[in-house]
Amino acid sequence: QSPSVLDAMCTEDADCPMGNPVVRGNGIKTGKCVMFNTTHSTCEIYGWCPVENSTLPRKPLLAEAENFTLFIKNTVHFTKFNFSKCNTLQTNDSTYFKSCRYDPFFNPSCPVFRVRDMVEAAGETFEELALLGGSIGVQIEWDCDLDHPAAQCQPRYSFSLQDRRYNFRTASYYWDSQRRLYRNLLKLYGIRFDISVHGQAGKFSIFPAAVIFGTGIAFFGAATVVCDLVLLYLDAKADFYWKEKFEEVR
């Protein structure tokens, strides 16, 4: 292990308990303290070599990805109203989705988005986000008034930046002709899209309207009673209100 890792420094084998991982290191201790160079001794480890380096890319490795497209197909079901709607245009033209691009005004039923447009809608530039990766949130909002025609029930899309860095590692393992185990470790940078869908729908019904109307009338009746009690018994001019409200008959 490199002497730059503090937990790897040692003077004897007892400083390197077998099976313990090197804190912030690259492997498991073998139990041996070995000479790293003329001035340092470090714990020997079981690990892959060479160790991963921290070299960062200087430019996006796949700059052409800005013109890639993402097809987002989404269907909502409002079971209470027995209503379903898909965000794609119902068409028999098999080439439509190959050429169309989403536009909120001119083409809202084409859920095909250009990657660069999505990144810019989230407030970022593609070149910066593609270099070290990032995460973009895609929110799909359905807000439907089912008293109107079904064609007016359309989703609204919004984009937000969740993280300016995104990467993950993957490895492939293989044996050589001498039965020695090797691996290729890849650190991959990319743009991740997290899609969330929310929806609500409403429709006029006479029964809830009648209940709300009746509740309102009852509320105003109760309010009148409360006002009378305050004015007749709690107000400083209660005697005046009492004389104005009631007429004594002798």
UniProtKB/TrEMBL annotation:
This is P2X purinoceptor 6. Keywords: Cell membrane, Disulfide bond, Glycoprotein, Ion channel, Ion transport, Ligand-gated ion channel, Membrane, Transmembrane, Transmembrane helix, Transport. It is a multi-pass membrane protein. It comes from the Eukaryota. GO terms for biological process: calcium ion transmembrane transport; response to ATP. Pfam families: P2X_receptor. It is found in: Cell membrane. It catalyses: Ca(2+)(in) = Ca(2+)(out). InterPro entries: P2X6_purnocptor (IPR003049), P2X_extracellular_dom_sf (IPR027309), P2X_purnocptor (IPR001429), P2X_receptor (IPR059116), P2X_RECEPTOR_CS (IPR053792). PROSITE patterns: P2X_RECEPTOR (PS01212). GO terms for molecular function: ATP binding; extracellularly ATP-gated monoatomic cation channel activity; purinergic nucleotide receptor activity. GO terms for cellular component: plasma membrane; postsynapse. Belongs to the P2X receptor family. The chain crosses the membrane at residues 206-234.
